[in-house]
């Protein structure tokens, strides 16, 4: 980063600015090179203040929540990384329908368990899903037949040009594991989301959450991974295709295509992003050759990549 810009950041965020921070500590895969600068933010208002200041300074930044579904380059990220720890949650069980209003850094599984304890149904699918609410809204996260598109009512966000706005679920133009935010990358920062739930039996809700969590543990690898690597092609399973291509257990460096579920790539320690990248390319090439199908990434590439453009 330009020394003058860095000096300016030090003066604006004197106690909070961290420099040259490895992002491996902020991603579920435990992979990632250094960010030039990093700020940990603990409320929606802190997100607003930081984003407005960085836009004013014309400094590039990106927001990371739980750090799942992203692969950060070994070269790291130029500019500023905002770590979203804005996690305030308000449940409104007496509203009709009952609502949950949460800041974008809240974790999905925490929201699901809070709702369950209040006898509110509709988020059971999220009880074992890693990552933040903001990331889930952005990528239309889902599991076990549920997803954000089926739960979300609206989001509040900060737009670079237009200030604070409320967007309806419809405006996000959701598709399978995608949204307008993910497709078009408008200059916005997601602040809060409002979710509509239903009244249900607390014991039954919590039982279902437990079953989903157990199912996930029994079918997906423990340890450091990015989450699902590829989207499922229409009518197909990405994991099944990779397995049938003979790649289950394939290793490059310390990165492995999981023996438990071939759509998960596991970091066995000190794995490089380039090793994961090589496995991605191998899986895509082999599945295309054997089945004539192109696997589309569900994860996003972040940072500086040689020959590939991340975000």
Tell me what the structure shows:
With 311 residues, this protein is of the alpha+beta class. It has three domains: 3-84, Uridine Diphospho-n-acetylenolpyruvylglucosamine Reductase, domain 2 (2-Layer Sandwich), CATH 3.30.43; 89-200, Uridine Diphospho-n-acetylenolpyruvylglucosamine Reductase, domain 3 (2-Layer Sandwich); 221-302, Alpha-Beta Complex (Uridine Diphospho-n-acetylenolpyruvylglucosamine Reductase, domain 1), CATH 3.90.78.10. It contains eight helices and 19 strands. It has helices at 3-12, 44-56, 108-117, 133-139, 180-184, 202-219, 238-244, 273-291, and strands spanning 18-22, 34-41, 61-64, 70-72, 77-84, 89-92, 99-103, 120-121, 142-143, 146-147, 152-159, 163-168, 188-196, 198-199, 224-225, 251-252, 255-257, 265-267, 300-302. It has a five-stranded antiparallel beta sheet. A four-stranded mixed beta sheet has the order 1-2-5-3, with helices on one face. Strands 15-18-17-16 form a four-stranded antiparallel beta sheet. Helix 3 (108-117) packs antiparallel against helix 6 (202-219). The longest helix is centred in the C-terminal third of the chain and has 19 residues, at 273-291. The two termini are 16 Å apart.
């Amino acid at each position: 980063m330009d020394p003058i810009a860095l000096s300016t950041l030090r003066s604006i965020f004197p106690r909070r600015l961290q420099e040259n921070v490895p992002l491996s500590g902020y991603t579920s895969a435990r992979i990632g090179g250094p960010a030039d600068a990093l700020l940990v933010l603990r409320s929606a208002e802190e997100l607003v203040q930081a984003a407005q200041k960085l836009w004013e300074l014309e400094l590039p930044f990106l927001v990371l929540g739980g750090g799942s579904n992203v692969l950060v380059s070994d070269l790291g990220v130029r500019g500023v990384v905002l770590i979203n720890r804005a996690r305030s949650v308000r449940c409104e069980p007496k509203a009709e329908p009952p609502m949950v209003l949460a800041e974008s850094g809240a974790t999905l599984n925490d929201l699901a368990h809070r709702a369950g304890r209040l006898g509110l149904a509709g988020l059971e699918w999220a009880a074992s899903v890693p990552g933040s609410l903001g990331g889930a809204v952005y990528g239309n996260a889902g599991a076990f037949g549920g997803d954000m598109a089926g739960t979300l009512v609206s989001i509040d966000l900060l737009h670079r040009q237009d200030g604070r706005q409320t967007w309806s679920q419809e405006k996000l133009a959701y598709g399978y594991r995608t949204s307008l935010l993910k497709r078009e990358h408008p200059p916005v920062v997601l602040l809060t989301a409002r979710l509509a739930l239903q009244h249900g039996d607390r014991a039954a809700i919590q039982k279902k959450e437990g079953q989903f969590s157990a199912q996930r543990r029994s079918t997906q690898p423990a340890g450091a991974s990015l989450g699902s690597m590829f989207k499922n092609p229409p009518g197909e399973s990405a994991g099944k295709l990779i397995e049938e291509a003979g790649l289950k257990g394939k290793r490059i460096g310390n990165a492995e295509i999981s023996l438990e579920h071939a759509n998960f790539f596991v970091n066995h320690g000190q794995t490089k992003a380039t090793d994961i990248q090589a496995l991605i390319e191998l899986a895509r090439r082999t599945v295309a050759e054997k089945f004539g199908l192109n696997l589309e990434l569900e994860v996003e590439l972040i940072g500086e990549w040689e020959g590939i453009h991340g975000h």
